[in-house]
Design a protein that fits this description.
This protein has helices spanning 8-17, 24-52, 64-85. By secondary structure, it is mostly helical. The protein has a domain at 22-54 and 61-85: Helix-loop-helix DNA-binding domain (MYOD Basic-Helix-Loop-Helix Domain, subunit B). It starts with 7 loop residues before the first helix and ends with a helix. One of its GO terms (cellular component) is nucleus. Its main location: nucleus. Residues 26-78 form the BHLH domain.
């Protein structure tokens, strides 16, 4: 009887990694739909944040980075006010 160079555990792992893809078109469209939903949810959350953070008069349109930066500064300002009140 010949001995194989790897154990049955290694062989099972190899089979799992090299399985042919089934329904790759279906899984790709599922992935695309999930990504679309994730981006829509992120957009909604950013819109809510925009309503909570004072942006100032100079802003008609903000980048995500500028919105998050202003939110961070606003939170720090609120924390400072809270510390001074105590």
């Amino acid at each position: 009887a010949s001995m194989l160079p790897y154990s049955s555990k290694d062989r099972d792992a190899f089979k799992r990694r090299n399985k042919p893809k089934k329904n790759s078109t279906s899984s790709r469209s599922t992935h695309n739909e999930m990504e679309k939903n994730r981006r829509a949810h992120l957009r909604l959350c950013l819109e809510k944040l925009k309503g909570l953070v004072p942006l100032g008069p100079e802003s008609s349109r903000h980048t995500t980075l500028s919105l998050l930066t202003k939110a961070k500064l606003h939170i720090k300002k609120l924390e400072d006010c809270d510390r001074k009140a105590v």
